[in-house]
Protein: 6-phosphofructokinase
Amino acid sequence: MLTSGGDAPGMNAALRAVVLAAEHYDMEVIAFRHGYEGLLDNEYLSLKAADVLHVLQYSGTIIKSARCPRFKEVAAAQLAAENLDALGLSALVVIGGDGSFRGAEHLSQYWQGQIIGVPGTIDNDLYGTDATIGYATAVAIAMDALDKIRDTADAMDRVFIVEVMGRHAGFIGLSSAMAAGAERMILPELQRDKPLTVAALVKHIKRVEAVRGPGSYVMVLSEHQWPGGAVALSEQLEAEFDMPCRPCLLGHIQRGGAPAPSDRILASQLGVHAIELILQGATRVMAGIKANQMVAVPLVDTWTKKNPLDENLLRIQHEIFNPVKKSASKPSQ
Ligand code: F6P
Structure:
């Protein structure tokens, strides 16, 4: 087993579940430290139940994680295969996101053992599962921050731009904006269709003020969706449109603290599912959950296919909660 890529709250709960389920089914677990780096450098340790019993309340990962660009090379996958065979291992559980799963698929070209992915990323951007481990916690942290920003924004009738993680996917942005009642979202998916201009943004800010009266306006900006991010955008609004505006960058705070209950439970289910998939002979699949059913999704599908943003949440945010148009149309039956 290894944890790879950006850590996500609940990874410890997932690795705990892998170890406990493995012991239950008389299997032994070896954990590579620092993700694929540890697999290449033979940095590993044996994990028993006693090592993992009380780790599910902590974020991060006790076996460490890393990004490992060199794993893309053929020689790296071949070396990893040799190391796995030398240890007599029959299966590898990879807890991580799309980059980690690409690495797992790459390894499968050179190693005959079973490979099972467990979706661990705050971005929630893996196809085939209703949620990824860490997403719920990240949304809760962003929501909490947005609530606090609202207090000060409202006191001074200010515009705030809160930058959240998710450079390729707007799930954290949309959910936290919805949960905290933000007036505007700038998300990767929306930017692709129709990039927002400062002029359009200012028009919306003024429109909201005209309809709702003077007050605060809180915007959720996904990272990398504006040149220079929240700081540059707020400076632009102040300088060009004389609009008092403040930026707030949440960054890696979204990956820390106590994992939300739903992440601990999801991680526990998926960790056990990974071991049961190994027993069933599965390989090159991700352990996922769909409509409360445990599923096995081909690893390649997890990044080649995409879960779209919830259209109904977008509609509610854009058309109902935040006034864009003068007249409202009746909902279709
Ligand atoms: O993929 C998870 C994630 O937290 C993204 O939301 C973010 O863009 C990225 O990792 C940050 O990566 P790093 O921790 O390497 O800076």
Observations:
- The pocket of 6-O-phosphono-beta-D-fructofuranose is lined by residues 6, 67, 97, 121-123, 165-167, 223, 255 (CB under 6 Å).
